[in-house]
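In response to a reviewer's request, we include the raw inputs and outputs for one of the modeled complexes. The two entities were modeled together in a single run.
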Amino acid sequence: MTLSNAPATSPSNTAGPERKALDQVVIRFAGDSGDGMQITGSQFTETTAVAGNDLATFPDFPAEIRAPAGTTFGVSAFQIHFANHDILTPGDAPDVLVAMNPAALKVNLVDLKDNGLLIVNTGAFTSNNLKKAGYTSNPLEDKSLQPYRLMEIDVSKLTLDAVKDLPINQKDSLRCKNFWTLGLMYWLYGRDTSGTVRWLQQKFKKRPELAEANITAMNAGHAYGETAELPSETTPFTIDRATLEPGEYTNITGSSATAWGLATGANLAGLELVFGSYPITPASPMLHTLANLKEYGVVTFQAEDEIAAVCAAIGASYAGALGITASSGPGIALKMEAIGLAISTELPLVIVNVQRGGPSTGLPTKTEQSDLLQCVWGRNGDAPLVVLAASTPSDCFEMAIEAVRIATRYMTPVFLLTDGYLANGAEPWRIPDVSTFERFPVTFRTDTEGFHPFLRNDELTRNWAIPGTPGLEHRIGGLEKAYDSGNVSYDDANHQKMTWVRDERIRRIADHVEPQKVNLGEDSGDLVVVGWGSTYGAIHQAVKNARRSGLSVSQVHIRYLNPLPRNLGELLSRFKQVLVPEMNNGQLVKMLRAEYLVPAEGLNKVSGKPFKIAEIELAIRQRLES
Amino acid sequence: MSVAEPTPTLTRKDFTSDQEVRWCPGCGDYAILAAVQRLMPELGVPKEDTVFVSGIGCAARFPYYMNTYGFHTIHGRAPAVATGMKLANPKLDIWLVSGDGDALSIGGNHLIHLVRRDVDLQFLLFNNQIYGLTKGQYSPTSVLGQRTPSSPMGSVDNAMSAAELALGAGSRFVARSVDTDLKHLPKVLTRAHQHRGTSLVEIFQNCVVFNDNAFGHFTAKDVASDRQLMLEHGEPMLFGADNGKGLRVRPGGGVQLEVVTLGEDGIGIGDVLVHNETDRVLAGALAQLQPPAFPVALGVLYCNPGVTTYDRAVRDQVVQARAKRGPGDLNRLLRSGHTWKVEL
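The model returned the following structure tokens for the whole complex.
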């Protein structure tokens, strides 16, 4: 581990007992919503990324901003899995649990591995907090924690002691305890604190006393590690760098990747981007990112509601920009009529759906994949469009560009499906060189000869003529239009033809996208595990594990959900069994059975949490090891 | 130096599309369409920069009959679609055509936010106090007690006022006219077009099939002069035969308007209130006036342009961002977070 460039203000990372080398660790930070667990987690993530590990994260927080303190439903957690090798999931079960109060312990202990390291802030284990968490006896005293390696630390008191000479009040002092904890964890894993020092100095630029207090608390936590007595079998650790492809890396969330991908896509198409959006969890971060990209030709419009957001995007596309909107399940439901208008008028439009638990308001901060059928089928009339899904946080970048390419080349609305887990999760990303990307510039119609708005090319794509172009004045709308002129038509045969055209032109897009590949394993065998979206990592690892024991299982992960890849049906038919894990009650599995008459079988989980590798691996073994 | 080519003079015909107009015979929409088609050449805006946008309803067919760009969108959402157009291309001259159901019921929210943002476009609200295209149900502007297929015992919904709603939402231009008033309507539309920001024009429009003569009590020839107050900025608010009546603020406190007759009780022209279209309180009072006690206020009730418009302010921020940070460089953006290098 190279940590030679640590600045003098950071404590040394090599002091203390000898470090034990590990291949991978899963840590979960858990505390009250107000304890700053998400900040602690993301700082640990940044530092871990810079240290060269591969990583994956899973922030898990309640819908309430500050739920009543000390309650189990107010617990906020952040899990990070980091390793010296390539990893794809935030880990099934934590090796280390940091519990900042009794409620956090109560909610999260069930996941901690046996003999896992449990760090508890005893200062928060007051009788009142124990009661609020629903404990009838103090777990620190009733031996119920014996299966774990327990580190009892009064973080609250040690934090107050550390910052007592600083000019801040008691409340602000106590709020530094997450950085105290972070300091201890940095020591435990031999991490450099300087990145976090810089971050705090920047964040509290206007209140330097808070920056100083948090840095002091962090350094105190770090120093505590050097002198504290650790539970038996516990030593500080090192985790070597992962072997990553050479290049420049950054740590990226699905939200940022999507927003950057959309901006990049618009640039490659040579269009300005108009992003209409209404605040909704967990899609809002995209609006925040894009609102700050004005110099890139990105205009954001915070609309009065979801409907206005998509309608403004449609208006923008009509006027010659690229209209994009984003939301999550309930907001997408509101947009559907307007999306039908974009289908009928054949205008480019990208709709990002950051899925969350449903139905209705559902589980706003929890992840789910239950909007697939809504997006593919959920409109009045026969209203086909393109549906894509991103598989990992960094894949959001690539698929966002692909969504823009398809929308502009084929004059169609395109759904891009992500979910809360992808949007909030982070991973190291090898930053591409945008200048090497293939551009796909849009050509607007200017020739007046023989023009009508629904003139089509061989791909059945209509020409795009925009206001401001002399001689091409025309009217479009949601009424059925005549194939030959674009004028309003109620003719029966024409409607039959137009319904076919709308369907066929979307189907033909499958000729121009990558065929379905086998992501892992052979292209035939006993079992294929078919997934889409954020389950990629868990499925991949589960299939890998099963293959190590000699099982004939392959992974197929679908990114193009409508139209489905041309070769998919034939590919699936070469396997004896088809297993479809989804974080819903069985949606892709229905589509596959309907489309290909294959005996696909669902593996469904709707707990608001991603699949564990073990859950999928078990399902594979149950089918192949009988 | 380049010499500007003389702009060819356009005529009404240039703005008339080849589509057959399909409103009911006698519909007020015909008169409005004719007025707009006649007015267009006078405004001097190139045809290709003009866009008519509508929602759903009888009025919403309007774009099909204009030989400009046009978008017949979905019910109530035209303001949002038009806002998006204006964000993409602020040069476009946009006319929004809507009705009382489209603008005030299903699209009420969008109207409110359009006018508060002050997007630069003209909003023509054809108010016929009825749902026409769905065959005659009562609308948000139908009078209380109106019997319709959906209110057989009389509507129990209070009617709303488009002008008052718009003023309350922060509108900076509110005007009114009557579909068949061939002199007045073009004048009001011209003012609306001159105004930078959202110009709301409520046009009282007769639905000959489902709500015939809904406005006869103030538009019929024999009562028009007594029941219509034609507003002119800076002029005393006079109406009636020979302009014999006027409005003043009722003495004795409050801001209630009252009708006075010139020459009676010592009332002279100097007692009559002078219209000031930049006075929002006055505009609100005028919007409320209803026959028979008062005349209906027509013309420009309120015109008070803001320092900028929504679309301009949005564009200005783009310019500012570019001035401050330079044109966007995607490779720089992708490296704007914490980055590190992995060597071979």
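As requested, we also summarize the result in words. Residues 28-43 of chain B form the longest helix (16 residues). The longest strand of chain B covers residues 296-303.
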